[in-house]
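Worked example

This section walks through a single chain of length 310. The input is the sequence exactly as stored; nothing has been trimmed or padded.
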Amino acid sequence: RILFPGVFLLSLFFIVTVGAGVLLAKSESQAEVVTIVGLPSSSTEPTAQLLEDLAKLLESESGYTVNSFVAACAGSAVDALATGEATASFLPANAYVVAHDRFGVKVKLVAVRFGYPNIRGQFMVRTDSGINDLAGLAGLNFAFTEIGSISGYILPALYIQKTQGKTPADFFAEVVFTEGHADVGRAVYEGTFKGTTIQGGASFDDVRNLLVGEYPDIFTQVKVVAHTDFYPNDTVSMAPGLDMTVEQTLTDAFLAVAATPEGQSILASLYGIEAFQITNDSAYDIVRDANALTGYDLKPCGQAYLPFVQ
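Given that input, the structure is written out below as tokens.
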């Protein structure tokens, strides 16, 4: 009677301790295996191989086992994050915002290209036009790139709404779409596009660099009268509810890999990424405005991932 309670408690302690150890081991084991997801680039096979090469570098930096696959579309990548099938994914800015607001996906890193973690648009006119600001373009003919272009239409359209209180269709006399940033620069320089008089245009900042070989005097003949707000580049986003240690370790691993020559080469070939910077959700508020303007939403695709055929 005296010994039994002690034996019972000792046994109970043993069971709880071993059970806790099993759970801890299981938890640690799960934490050591992570999966990164990419989206199709020029073709599936090179993207898959590059993603696999990136995963190996991330393994070396993190100490985790890192798996990878290429999702068929952004919708599938977000589904993988939301369900816990994936740990981290490369996501476009517009897809990230929907993933965050709908599922709690967390942005950790933003891609850096041409030295910047963001892009913006610019409004251009001829220097001899007498126009010195955006308001001076009211009621004139204007050239955009294409309706889906971030810097060549969406950001300028948002900026016009914000500063002039009108849509581009209401603000300008006539709107034309050239389908190319360089074509907008040419249209402004020449003052015409396919027979339509053009008094201004919008493109990325600064498209004139692409045209200086064609028009050596473009920087004196074409001037910028306004810039749009900045729009952040695409992301490395992580699954909701992820263990904080895993989240931080993987974030650090991405940063470390991007600082190595081999990592830089892979990221440049994969998505034209030069480096990463730490970011947060508030940087993507302008993307929410852009999504509202365009009606963007995630779309399902036929399959969850694209197989890597060797």
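What to look for: The CA atoms of residues 33 and 65 lie 5 Å apart.
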